[in-house]
Amino acid sequence: GAVVSQHPSWVICKSGTSVKIECRSLDFQATTMFWYRQFPKQSLMLMATSNEGSKATYEQGVEKDKFLINHASLTLSTLTVTSAHPEDSSFYICSARVGLAGRIYNEQFFGPGTRLTVL
Amino acid sequence: AQTVTQSQPEMSVQEAETVTLSCTYDTSENNYYLFWYKQPPSRQMILVIRQEAYKQQNATENRFSVNFQKAAKSFSLKISDSQLGDTAMYFCAFMKGVGTASKLTFGTGTRLQVTL
Lengths: 119, 116
Hints:
- The structure holds 2 protein chains of 2 kinds.
- Chain A is an all-beta fold.
- Chain A has strands spanning 4-7, 10-13, 19-25, 30-38, 44-51, 57-58, 67-73, 76-81, 90-98, 108-110, 114-118.
- In chain A, the strands form 2 sheets. In chain A, strands 2, 4, 5, 6, 9, 10 and 11 form a 7-stranded mixed beta sheet that branches. A 4-stranded antiparallel beta sheet of chain A has the order 1-3-8-7, with no helix packed on it.
- Chain B is built from no helices and 12 strands.
- In chain B, β8 (64-69) and β9 form a beta hairpin.
- Chain B is globular.
- The chains are: A mainly beta, B mainly beta.
């Protein structure tokens, strides 16, 4: 099956610093990648959608200048949390979608998540 | 906008028994997909089962089956012969249409505990 990896799996940083999270599709090319945020005991909230080579589309209420998303290749997307603050502490999950011509349904595969703690 | 509602925050079932998790959704779309995802303590999201709205037949995957009622906009998940490894958060999700613009909308989740 298709595998999506995230790095790092957990990170602790000081308030005011920036943190970059990588999301890679290991054995397939992902035309679209998604970034989600999940608070404890809550559901996944979509932050943004990115297509390779294009600017990311952010959901309402998500600060695009704070959460920078780059999707430079068909196998890599990065989320950079700039000037992180304690309220940015959360579990971040990426997802990659296979885009195959002629398919009715394009399956979406999830990474294992990254736990960010901002002190 | 689409909404997905899971009215059961927590459920408990004994091992080997059957449990049904509820999900309702609201949409004006006619072409869409419905999913159940499992998130165990590892927090890795795992696709359990999916249903295409245009298919009348309920989807089945081994011990997992759905009861899809399109007119009622209901999409429940039945887990038969529950196992300890089924303990997890279960999220119902909706996706309209196809193409690069389609995206998943998740419900609030149901925490399922399988007990001995």
